[in-house]
Amino acid sequence: MANIASAAKRARQSLRITERNRALKTKVKTIRKQVQDAVEAGDKSLATTTLNTFNSTVDKAAKIKVLHPNAAARSKSKLHKQVSTLA
Fold first, then answer.
1. What is the full per-residue pLDDT of the chain (87 aa) written as tens digits?
2. What is the DSSP letter of 86?
3. What are the φ and ψ backbone dihedral angles of 2, each rounded to 5 degrees?
4. 28 near 68, Cβ under 8 Å?
5. Which residue ranges form the domains of the chain, and what is each CATH number?
């Protein structure tokens, strides 16, 4: 347990930030899975709309440094390539 007030505050902040980061990472993984399921099902319209949601969520995660910007770009590119192969 922290003996100094500032250390106690940082511990409280760390718990809140960790929870927020975990929730955002989980959201990104869930939406990625939805896009991949739509691609496997061959549903281009659902895949496209879900991909747009994924892009927005990943950009927000990269903006607040939950994901590295290059990792975000790589995952967006990979999914975009999968969706574009649907005819």
1. 889 999 999 999 999 999 999 999 999 999 999 999 999 999 999 999 999 999 999 999 999 999 999 999 999 999 999 999 986
2. -
3. -75, 140
4. no
5. 25-84 (1.20.58.110)
